[in-house]
Design goal:
Number of helices: 21
Largest sheet: 4 strands, mixed
Radius of gyration: 25 Å
Structural class: alpha+beta
Oligomer: single chain
Strand order of the largest sheet: 1-2-6-3
Number of strands: 8
Strand content: 5-15%
CATH topology: Cytochrome p450
């Protein structure tokens, strides 16, 4: 009893002393003379705590903040700076041109240490390991190497389209399953239908967990790392129990498919896959195991969820903008006809359909807030200090809706990416980064070509065979897609949809191509 009382008194003293010291530090910073440039403007923080809470609808609130404070806005969370980049110019300058000093990742106690995600490709902070990851990805998923996966993508998208026509009400589950099947086959060479359903469920929830763990200020232990040392069961330590649950799921999701490929390889039964090709060239080093297992996991866990979101967003756009759908179908009829199905190889002959994939990614970017980068050194931008240790985050949603860059930005207009002669515009590649949300600088997603190919396959296969429309009893005004208001993978929760055959033989041709 007395020992406990002594600790409580000591703890209270420490808290009081820390509070006094923090207040004195804040006051000293305010009155001391300094030759350093000022931080970017931003909302006034609450003393000691800062701007802790995220807004109810970040898309609206962050636009209002950009209108008020400008292209760079500074938030303070428990003394740490979080700087939001609201313009293409700021993103290009700080994340692309100055990538050497802006490619870091914040070390998160909850995500990295407790849940065990420090080796995840999007999270790894070690520059040597990060270069290894990128080198491996570039060799396999560059614009030319990624063509090796076109057959896998085409087959799974045709299966998806046939299911959309025969059981439309389950469209969301069909999309999730198809994109997961593509990524799982590429990563591990395995049929997802043959895997444990509980594992599949955990895999589908992985990306949402990752987004939750990375949200700035989501867990107090990330802001006050000392909480990690408190005994489990004490007030304020519920995060430890949750971390154990999540860590078990992460270990299962990352390790089970990888070990399965290793076992198949040992018995000579492994099918071709990304994991197998790297295992065959590995020399047994621990770093090889880390690189292979975690990059394979990134292909599946991140790639399937974001591609599924893109297809959901595309279908929603087709209901809201039927004139765009009709124009794409005119192009498909003129170029492909109705005697064969379109393929990814037809991309250069279908510029309007290709532009639709780009516009889908801009109109509803799957990652409206890019993952935060960590500044590794001080930088000056437009007279403002972007300090070492600050987190900087691109406001992709605002960039994609910038009226000067994209007039009538709320409209779905593939013509943005076409020149006057209906060919792909030279500006498309220049606007690709900020508009499409594949990340920036050294943190840009190396699987972007794979993602675009899957989305293009979905666009041309669905529109060649089907008419997508709003069901009877609904209208554009009453159709609520249920987009999330908190930072997450940006996809509709669920919406009513009608998918019908465009011509009598469409479904039969799809089924025949699947079984060939």
């Amino acid at each position: 009893m007395s020992a406990m009382l002594t600790f409580q008194i000591s703890w209270g003293t420490v808290v009081e002393a820390a509070a006094v010291a923090a207040v004195m530090l804040v006051l000293w910073r305010q009155v001391r003379p300094s030759s350093r440039p000022p931080l970017p403007p931003g909302p006034r923080p609450i003393p000691l705590i800062g701007n802790l809470s995220l807004p109810k609808d970040y898309r609206v609130t962050f636009r209002e903040l950009a209108d008020k404070y400008g292209e760079v806005v500074n938030f303070c969370i428990f003394g740490k700076n979080l700087i939001l980049l609201n313009s293409k110019r700021a993103v290009t300058e700080l994340l692309e041109k100055r990538a050497t000093t802006s490619f870091g990742r914040q070390k998160l106690v909850m995500a990295h240490e407790l849940v065990g995600l420090k080796y995840m490709f999007s999270q790894v902070s070690d520059p040597v390991l990060h270069r290894q990851y990128r080198r491996v990805f570039s060799a396999v998923f560059g614009p030319r190497p990624s063509r090796a996966f076109w057959d896998i993508q085409t087959l799974q998208i045709r299966k998806l389209t046939a299911k959309l026509l025969t059981s439309t009400s389950e469209y969301s589950a069909h999309i999730d399953k198809a994109t997961a099947a593509i990524s799982f086959l590429i990563a591990y060479g395995k049929d997802l239908d043959q895997e444990d359903p509980s594992l599949v469920k955990k895999i589908h929830g992985f990306m949402g967990l990752l987004m939750r763990l990375q949200a700035p200020g989501a867990f107090l232990v990330d802001l006050i790392p000392g909480l990690q040392k408190l005994p489990e069961g004490w007030p304020g330590t519920k995060f430890k129990q949750q971390a154990k649950v999540w860590r078990k799921e992460v270990d299962e999701v990352m390790d089970v498919p990888y070990q399965s490929v290793k076992q198949d390889m040992a018995s000579g039964k492994a099918d071709p896959s990304y994991t197998l090709s790297l295992l065959e060239g590995a020399d047994g080093k621990d770093t090889d195991e880390i690189v292979i297992k975690w990059t394979a996991g990134a292909i599946f866990n991140a790639g399937s969820d974001t591609t599924a979101a893109s297809i959901h967003n595309f279908l929603y756009a087709m209901m809201m903008f039927p004139q765009v759908q009709a124009k794409a179908q005119q192009e498909l009829d003129a170029v492909i006809g109705r005697d064969r199905l379109p393929t990814i190889e037809d991309r250069d002959k279908l510029p309007y359909c290709w532009a639709m994939t780009q516009e889908s990614l801009r109109w509803q970017p799957v990652a409206p807030l890019a993952l935060p980068h960590l500044m590794l050194a001080d930088e000056i931008y437009e007279g403002y200090l972007i300090p070492k240790g600050a987190m900087i985050m691109a406001n992709v949603w605002l960039l994609a809706r910038e009226e000067r860059e994209f007039p009538a930005a709320a409209e779905f207009q593939p013509e943005r990416y076409l020149s006057k002669d209906a060919k792909p515009s030279e500006d498309a590649e220049q606007t690709r980064g900020p508009s499409f949300g594949f990340g920036f600088g050294r943190r840009a997603c190396p699987g972007s070509y794979l993602a675009e190919d899957s989305l293009f396959a979905a666009v041309v296969t669905i529109l060649w065979s089907s008419i997508v429309s709003i069901p009877a009893g609904y209208s554009k005004e009453t159709l609520d897609p249920g987009y999330p208001k908190k930072p997450a993978v940006h996809r509709p929760v669920q919406f009513p949809i009608d998918v019908k055959r465009r011509f009598p033989t469409a479904l039969e041709m799809l089924k025949q191509s699947i079984h060939e």
